[in-house]
Specification:
By secondary structure, the protein is mostly helical. It contains 18 helices and four strands. The chain folds into three domains: 2-214, ABC transporter involved in vitamin B12 uptake, BtuC, CATH 1.10.3470.10; 284-355, Arc Repressor Mutant, subunit A, CATH 1.10.10; 360-409, Diphtheria Toxin Repressor, domain 2, CATH 1.10.60. The strands form two sheets. The protein has a two-stranded antiparallel ribbon. The protein has a two-stranded antiparallel sheet with strand order 3-4. It is elongated. The protein starts with a helix and ends in a 17-residue tail after the last helix.
């Protein structure tokens, strides 16, 4: 029996998380996370009124009440923002706090008449899922929340698959969507309707507060890992399901709220994504910044050597001179010099350091980029004594194509200081 209960609870959490994550991804991409928060809270008075009128937790009256409140929320936010010039974030805050407060008042005042209380509203009752069964023709067919969330999850998949192109273009560029004949306004309201439906389905399992995290956190986590929408959607659903499984296990260990543990795991996944995602993660960016610092230091060392080579081909630079030419911290400059030596771009002997054959070619390319950029800036009217700094910053990022375009625009023989511009190796 315990195993059956755990299965139904985990399945309910997985379906709720996956359903919310699927639509929440579009809220994140459209920068409408706060609107998802507003809808998930603002549907409360609709649910409360539906409970009071129907004296039932049936999905149809709940959905009708929540959908009407969701539509009212969206219309009020749009009206405040577009017609009365209230800032969008202020409009969202005003509408959803007012409606949510109204819902809390209704629940508090009439909680004795319906099976609903404040704790259920805020945190849900996912632990009671195995005993909230659905009877069909006198037969127990399993927990009612599983059936409801299962149907909603299928509807969300069909919605996303059917309108994938329209959702994609409307999420990234609504003006372009209108230009190619996609009704961005209709897509917006359809998405809000599905968000309202999903909110109602997940409401009694995870509550009004935690459903917000299920809409936003998995999608935000997935967005850190990829730039492809299909991949983001799949990762968001995967993160949502993983949160449900691990959250149930942690809740058992800590003897805590299951829904709260699920969202805690989702938050932990976001934190790990923020740290370790390959493109936008903190560690990846620190690594990229460190690698760029080393590369810039290498370029400065090569340029220092090639400039000395122009004056005296037999000159050897000391280690201290190269480390000083790197213009970075001592640790980074040492790493850069070691990398140059390992790559066989520089060589050293008892007299000092000099360019190897490959290093000379790379150094001349960098010197050409530097002097081409100086010449280009001089042609734009920048004084000769002020072109070195910008060229020193840009020389590391000029590729072969841009160098060729610069060469076609300027005199390739001499820079503004009368120094020879190295020939291209192409």
């Amino acid at each position: 029996m315990e195993l059956d209960s755990a299965f139904w609870i985990i399945l309910t959490g997985s379906l709720a998380s996956a359903s919310c994550a699927l639509l929440g991804t579009f809220l994140v991409l459209r920068k409408m996370s706060l609107l998802g928060d507003a809808l998930s809270h603002a549907v409360l008075p609709g649910i409360a009124i539906a409970f009071l009128l129907s004296d039932s937790r049936a999905i149809i009256p709940m959905f009708v009440g929540a959908a009407l409140c969701g539509l009212l929320t969206t219309l009020l936010i749009e009206a405040f923002h577009r017609k009365w010039n209230v800032q969008e974030d202020a409009s969202i805050g005003i509408v959803f706090t007012a409606l949510f407060a109204l819902g809390v008042v209704l629940v508090t005042a009439y909680a004795g008449q319906v099976d609903l209380d404040q704790e259920c509203v805020l945190y849900g009752e996912i632990a009671y899922t195995p005993w909230d069964t659905l009877i069909w023709n006198g037969v127990d067919v399993g927990p009612r929340p599983v059936w409801i969330l299962g149907v909603v999850f299928i509807l969300n998949i069909l919605f996303v698959c059917t309108l994938y192109k329209e959702l994609k273009i409307a999420s990234f560029d609504s003006a372009m969507a209108m230009a190619v004949g996609v009704n961005a306004t209709l897509i917006h309201y359809l998405l809000m309707g599905m968000v309202s439906l999903t909110t109602v389905a997940a409401f009694e399992s995870v509550g009004a507060i935690l459903v917000v995290a299920m809409f936003i956190v998995p999608g935000a986590s997935a967005y850190l890992w990829s730039d492809r929408l299909v991949t983001i959607l799949c990762l968001a659903v995967l993160f949502g399901v993983l949160s449900a499984w691990v959250g149930y296990w942690i809740a058992g260990i800590w003897d805590s709220s299951i829904a709260g543990a699920i969202v805690t795991v989702a938050g932990a996944i976001f934190l790990l994504s923020l740290l370790f995602s390959p493109n936008q993660g903190v560690i990846a960016r620190l690594w990229q910044r460190a690698a760029l610092s080393v590369q810039v230091a290498q370029d400065h060392m090569l340029l220092a050597l090639v400039r000395r080579f122009e004056v005296d081909e037999t000159h050897r630079s000391s280690r201290e001179e190269l480390l000083q030419a790197a213009s970075v911290s001592h640790l980074v400059s040492r790493l850069a010099l070691r990398s140059l030596e390992k790559s066989r771009l520089v060589v050293h002997d008892s007299q000092g350091w000099a360019l190897a054959a490959g290093g000379k070619q790379e150094a001349l390319r960098l010197l050409r980029n530097h002097r081409l950029w100086e010449t280009y800036l001089s042609g734009l009217g920048l004084p000769e004594n002020r072109v070195h700094g910008p060229a020193d910053a840009v020389e590391h990022f000029i590729g072969r194509q841009l160098a060729a375009e610069l060469g076609a625009e300027v005199d390739q023989s001499m820079d503004p200081q009368g120094k020879r511009i190295p020939l291209s190796d192409d």
